[in-house]
Amino acid sequence: MRRLLTYIVSLYAAALIISCSKGGKTLGIPQSSQQLIAGQWSLQQQKVLQYLNDIVQLDTTYNTSLNNVARIQFNKDGTFYSISFYSTGTNSNNLSSGAVTTADSTAGVFSFAGTNFNVSAPIAGLGSSGFPVGVTTVTANPAVFTPVSNSIAVAQLTASRLSLHTENIYTLSSNQVTQTFKYECDYYFTR
């Protein structure tokens, strides 16, 4: 009986040691997943849904191409950097239809807290549809954007694939009218 009790206590102690990280913190996502996200990822596709007052205004998918690329780098120290680039190609020497080139970059920190994934800044993507659809001019002085909520979740993480889902909700008040915008985005990365 005493040997059985000693064996059970030893087994329990081993389970505690294995389930804790080096800092003594128990993590909901295995340490290997945190290490797995580290490195450079190339965005292959981005699905965008944008709502204005709960009515779909934009539903589109952007695919990577030679003129439309985005990447994100997650570092082991908990920082990240993302960049995107879009170009319509070369200038046609026509003043009314010249080449369009845009670039975006963001940087911040990321963390896993339990099973939650958090980033401190937006992720640069393939599409440039962050400004509210349906708002072409804002005549109020000043127009007020108010964040309501934002979230990000890891939908898939393997050695070669990373999928993220983001949702951002905000309001825009202009000329005593308040509208609610919801911006959903699915990012599909590969290494």
Characterise the protein shown here:
The structure is a single chain. The protein is mostly beta strands and 191 residues long. It has one domain (30-190). The chain has helices spanning 2-19, 31-37; strands spanning 39-52, 55-63, 68-74, 79-87, 101-113, 116-119, 144-157, 161-174, 177-190. Strands 1, 2, 3, 4, 5, 6, 7, 8 and 9 form a nine-stranded antiparallel sheet that branches. The longest helix is centred in the first third of the chain and has 18 residues, at 2-19. It is globular, with a radius of gyration of 23 Å. It starts with a helix and ends with a strand.
Q: How much strand content do the residues show?
A: over 45%
Mean pLDDT: 76
Distinct helical segment count = 2
The SSE order reads: HHEEEEEEEEE
The helicity comes to: 10-25%
Number of strands: 9
Shape: globular
Distance between the termini: 54 Å
**Rg from alpha-carbon coordinates:** 23 Å
User: For the report, how would you describe the main beta sheet?
Assistant: 9 strands, antiparallel
- Low-confidence residue ranges: 1-29
Structural class: mainly beta
Number of domains: 1
Break the fold down into its secondary structure elements and pairings.
Blueprint lengths: L1 H18 L11 H7 L1 E14 L2 E9 L4 E7 L4 E9 L13 E13 L2 E4 L24 E14 L3 E14 L2 E14 L1
Antiparallel strand pairs: 1-2, 1-3, 1-9, 3-4, 4-5, 5-6, 7-8, 8-9
